[in-house]
């Protein structure tokens, strides 16, 4: 596509027809009004016939889409895997939709790749599909977590859960208001109930398992590594939970990350405290990792372990219900 430059500053670009063979009456031959550009590097414009890449990625912010030039002066967060514009914080890492989908497919399908070269292929936006092995390796290297991928969400995966045969959706009369659920003289409508249950399944936190290596040696460093891995996975779960909050995904990426960065420590601490409420002088970091004060000290937590135990004792004295704890 050619461009006509008028003057030096500001620059003007005049869009010309995409194809000389287009009919004269076609809207494609109409000349767009000049677009003023601030001094700086010229934006990239796709050539005619350019095929968009797979994985649902189209023209990102600041790129051309649908024959229009979109300009933005806002800084863009880049994908840590390929350098494209990041669409969000996926599996613990700022990444684009393409790398997010690639990582998810690889984990859910248990796919193994092999590099035809020396396992040192450069992964960029243009070359990210050249070597899947090196792309997946880079996903792991920048911090993407396998535990963030829900294995039960593969296509058709939820069909393996059998429905209960002909069960009344309302366990007892008056459990829900009759208005939105039932019609007088007609069958009950179960769609609102199913939607409510589906939403509760999303927001309900999953049980965490540390899964320490039973063959590994006991000591300070293995315990610290186990706790770090556990907290990484819990942060990924927290991010997924935050995305289920109405309105959160409509925030800009920078606002989403600011919110998460300001509360992640409190979320981890309250998670440990909530799991430890039924226990006595013990901290439940996971279902299979419970430490007393001495064990927490041996794991390298030191004063943090003592402070967590003190917090748990205070919450136990308040006798808070789970709902009250969440409200606070």
Automatic annotation (TrEMBL):
<dbReference type="GO" id="GO:0005634">
    <property type="term" value="C:nucleus"/>
</dbReference>
<dbReference type="Pfam" id="PF00104">
    <property type="entry name" value="Hormone_recep"/>
</dbReference>
<keyword id="KW-0805">Transcription regulation</keyword>
<dbReference type="Pfam" id="PF00105">
    <property type="entry name" value="zf-C4"/>
</dbReference>
<dbReference type="GO" id="GO:0043565">
    <property type="term" value="F:sequence-specific DNA binding"/>
</dbReference>
<keyword id="KW-0479">Metal-binding</keyword>
<keyword id="KW-0863">Zinc-finger</keyword>
<protein>
    <submittedName>
        <fullName>Estrogen related receptor alpha</fullName>
    </submittedName>
</protein>
<feature type="domain" description="Nuclear receptor">
    <location>
        <begin position="76"/>
        <end position="151"/>
    </location>
</feature>
<keyword id="KW-0675">Receptor</keyword>
<dbReference type="GO" id="GO:0008270">
    <property type="term" value="F:zinc ion binding"/>
</dbReference>
<keyword id="KW-0007">Acetylation</keyword>
<dbReference type="InterPro" id="IPR035500">
    <property type="entry name" value="NHR-like_dom_sf"/>
</dbReference>
<keyword id="KW-0862">Zinc</keyword>
<keyword id="KW-0238">DNA-binding</keyword>
<dbReference type="InterPro" id="IPR001628">
    <property type="entry name" value="Znf_hrmn_rcpt"/>
</dbReference>
<keyword id="KW-0539">Nucleus</keyword>
<dbReference type="GO" id="GO:0003700">
    <property type="term" value="F:DNA-binding transcription factor activity"/>
</dbReference>
<feature type="region of interest" description="Disordered">
    <location>
        <begin position="1"/>
        <end position="67"/>
    </location>
</feature>
<comment type="similarity">
    <text>Belongs to the nuclear hormone receptor family. NR3 subfamily.</text>
</comment>
<keyword id="KW-0804">Transcription</keyword>
<dbReference type="InterPro" id="IPR000536">
    <property type="entry name" value="Nucl_hrmn_rcpt_lig-bd"/>
</dbReference>
<feature type="compositionally biased region" description="Gly residues">
    <location>
        <begin position="58"/>
        <end position="67"/>
    </location>
</feature>
<dbReference type="InterPro" id="IPR050200">
    <property type="entry name" value="Nuclear_hormone_rcpt_NR3"/>
</dbReference>
<dbReference type="InterPro" id="IPR013088">
    <property type="entry name" value="Znf_NHR/GATA"/>
</dbReference>
<feature type="domain" description="NR LBD">
    <location>
        <begin position="192"/>
        <end position="328"/>
    </location>
</feature>
<dbReference type="InterPro" id="IPR001723">
    <property type="entry name" value="Nuclear_hrmn_rcpt"/>
</dbReference>
């Amino acid at each position: 596509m050619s461009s006509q430059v008028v003057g030096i500053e500001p620059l003007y670009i005049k869009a010309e027809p995409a194809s000389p063979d287009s009919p004269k009456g076609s809207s494609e031959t109409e000349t767009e009004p000049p677009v003023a550009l601030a001094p700086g590097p010229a934006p990239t414009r796709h050539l005619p016939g350019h095929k968009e890449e797979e994985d649902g990625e189209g023209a990102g912010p600041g790129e051309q889409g649908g024959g229009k030039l979109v300009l933005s002066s806002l800084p863009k967060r880049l994908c840590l895997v390929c350098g494209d514009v990041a669409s969000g914080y996926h599996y613990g890492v700022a990444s684009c939709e393409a790398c997010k989908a690639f990582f998810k497919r690889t984990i859910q399908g248990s796919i193994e790749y092999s590099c035809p070269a020396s396992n040192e292929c450069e992964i960029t936006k243009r070359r990210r599909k050249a070597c899947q092995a090196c792309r997946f390796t880079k996903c792991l290297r920048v911090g993407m977590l396998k535990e963030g991928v829900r294995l039960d969400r593969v296509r058709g995966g939820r069909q393996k859960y059998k429905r209960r045969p002909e069960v009344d959706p309302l366990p007892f009369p008056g459990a829900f208001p009759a208005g939105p659920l039932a019609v007088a003289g007609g069958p009950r409508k179960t769609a609102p109930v199913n939607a409510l249950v589906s939403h509760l399944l999303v927001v309900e936190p999953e049980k965490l398992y540390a899964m320490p290596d039973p063959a590994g040696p006991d000591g300070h460093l293995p315990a610290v590594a186990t706790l770090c891995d556990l907290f990484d996975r819990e942060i990924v779960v927290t991010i997924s939970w935050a995305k289920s909050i109405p309105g959160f995904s409509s925030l800009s990426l920078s606002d989403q990350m600011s919110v998460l960065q300001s509360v992640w420590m409190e979320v981890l601490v309250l998670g440990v405290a909530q799991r430890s409420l039924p226990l006595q002088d013990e901290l439940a970091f996971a279902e299979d990792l419970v430490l007393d004060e001495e064990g927490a000290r041996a794991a390298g937590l030191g004063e943090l372990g003592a402070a967590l135990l003190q917090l748990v004792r205070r919450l136990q004295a308040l006798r808070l219900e789970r709902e009250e704890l969440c409200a606070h």
